[in-house]
Write a sequence for this structure.
């Protein structure tokens, strides 16, 4: 499988898992992280549960960001190769 396809597959998996785009997930994760920082809004048990969920979300976010950036890098590389091939033909 080409690296571009691997990145696309990872992105699709994460979109399906979370039911949203990377941009939406970025905002969602930031909002939940901010909620954790506000004192007195939830019980200790709720805070611990949310903290665990946020940690998993942040791991997914890092994987997702890496896949998005790698996809863009590979696509740029492919475009550059195509341009080089067409200019030397």
């Amino acid at each position: 499988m080409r690296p571009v396809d691997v990145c696309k597959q990872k992105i699709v998996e994460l979109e399906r898992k979370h039911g949203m785009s990377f941009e939406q997930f970025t905002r969602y994760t930031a909002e939940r992280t901010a909620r954790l920082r506000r004192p007195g809004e939830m019980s200790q048990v709720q805070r611990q549960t949310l903290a665990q969920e946020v940690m998993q979300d942040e791991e997914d976010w890092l994987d997702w960001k890496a896949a998005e950036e790698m996809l863009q890098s590979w696509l740029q590389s492919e475009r550059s190769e195509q341009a080089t091939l067409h200019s030397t033909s």
